[in-house]
């Protein structure tokens, strides 16, 4: 005779898994949550061993100096040293596969005490043919945190994204 779970047991097990899932989502705070700007919408999260990402959209007029400065200050307050990014200023290009014009800027920081690298990618995306300025105020921000074993591994990560940092 096969083992079967009765209907009453199914109804006891399913709410238990929902409880575990939702409490993990609600109470599972990440350091990256502190970088989410006021007015953020369309929030998303990803994580894997040694990697976390949070992404969201904010209403910010290009070139978003206020929001960029706010992120810089939050990064410094949390012990991250600023690095020289491969995209330190706004750059635009046309993505032919999606027919979007994308405006990107990148900020990078390193925290040697916890062997982590943090990458902020600011972008505007729109269907347009102008590479000068975006017409929309919808700015998308992706924040990625990578954890490394040591400083040598951090340097390899920086090489991959073509960023440079002055270590202590």
Short description:
The chain is α+β, with helices and mostly antiparallel strands. It is built from 3 helices and 7 strands, in the order αββαβββββα.
Helix content: 25-40%
Which term fits the overall shape?
Answer: globular
Major sheet details:
7 strands, antiparallel
Number of domains: 1
N-to-C SSE string, H for helix and E for strand:
HEEHEEEEEH
Spell out the key features of this protein.
168 residues, alpha+beta, seven-stranded antiparallel beta sheet, 3 helices, 34% strand, disordered N terminus
Task: Write the topology of this structure.
Layout: H1 7-27, E1 41-48, E2 51-59, H2 65-77, E3 81-82, E4 91-95, E5 100-111, E6 116-126, E7 138-147, H3 151-160
Antiparallel strand pairs: 1-2, 2-7, 3-5, 4-5, 5-6, 6-7
Structural commentary:
By secondary structure, this protein is of the alpha+beta class. The chain has one domain. 26% of the residues lie in helices and 34% in strands. It contains 3 helices and 7 strands. Strands 1, 2, 3, 4, 5, 6 and 7 form a 7-stranded antiparallel sheet that branches. Strand 1 and strand 2 form a beta hairpin. The protein is globular and about 45 Å long. The N and C termini lie far apart (68 Å). 18% of the residues are buried. The N terminus is likely disordered.
């Amino acid at each position: 005779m096969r083992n079967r779970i009765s209907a009453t047991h199914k109804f006891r097990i399913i709410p238990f898994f929902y409880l575990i899932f939702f409490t993990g989502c609600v109470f599972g705070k990440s350091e990256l949550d502190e970088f989410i700007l006021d007015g953020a919408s369309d929030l998303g999260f990803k994580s894997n061993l040694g990697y976390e990402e949070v992404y969201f959209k904010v209403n910010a007029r290009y070139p978003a100096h206020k929001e960029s400065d706010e992120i810089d200050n939050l990064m410094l307050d949390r012990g991250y040293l600023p690095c020289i990014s491969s995209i330190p200023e706004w750059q635009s290009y046309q993505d032919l596969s999606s027919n979007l014009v994308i405006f990107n800027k990148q900020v990078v920081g390193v925290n040697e005490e916890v062997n982590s690298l943090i990458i902020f990618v600011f972008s505007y995306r729109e269907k347009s043919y102008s590479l000068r300025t975006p017409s929309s105020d919808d700015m998308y921000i992706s924040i990625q945190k990578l954890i490394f074993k040591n400083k040598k591994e951090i340097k390899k990560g920086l090489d991959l994204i073509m960023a440079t940092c002055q270590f202590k």
